[in-house]
Design a protein that fits this description.
Length: 125
């Protein structure tokens, strides 16, 4: 059994949080990333603390991690220690190194193995 908490739709958040546009995720060792609240309102976004009846292992981001499947992995902060709701975008670890601010997974070319030919790659559009 997967233990998780779905992030509620923006309209169900009350008071001060409705005027914020972003969530700033932080972990203990100088890692942050910022995500639009609209991305958190997706039904697939969740805070994860366990799987299969066990606590989430450190190698998978335990004891607590964010999971936002519609964005690239660097937006799903592992080893989460703090969530802040902010009005302005704050550049995070990977964004400061040139990665996309939004983390959107855009359509384009991906690579997949050719069935029966392990090790060979084929461009898929």
């Amino acid at each position: 059994m997967l233990h998780y908490y779905y992030i509620p739709n923006n309209h169900s958040w009350k008071g001060w949080i409705c005027v914020r546009r972003y969530a700033l995720f932080s972990r203990a060792k100088d890692y942050t990333t910022t995500v639009l609240l609209t991305d958190l309102s997706a039904s697939t976004s969740m805070l994860v603390w366990g799987a299969g009846g066990e606590s989430l292992e450190d190698e998978y981001g335990g004891p607590l991690r964010m999971l936002i499947p519609n964005l690239w992995g660097y937006k799903s902060c592992k080893w989460l220690v703090k969530i802040e709701f902010v009005e302005k975008y704050v550049m995070g670890y990977w964004e400061l190194r040139g990665y996309s601010h939004s983390g959107d997974i855009e359509p384009g070319e991906t690579y997949d193995s050719i069935p029966g030919n392990i090790g060979q790659l084929a461009a898929v559009k």
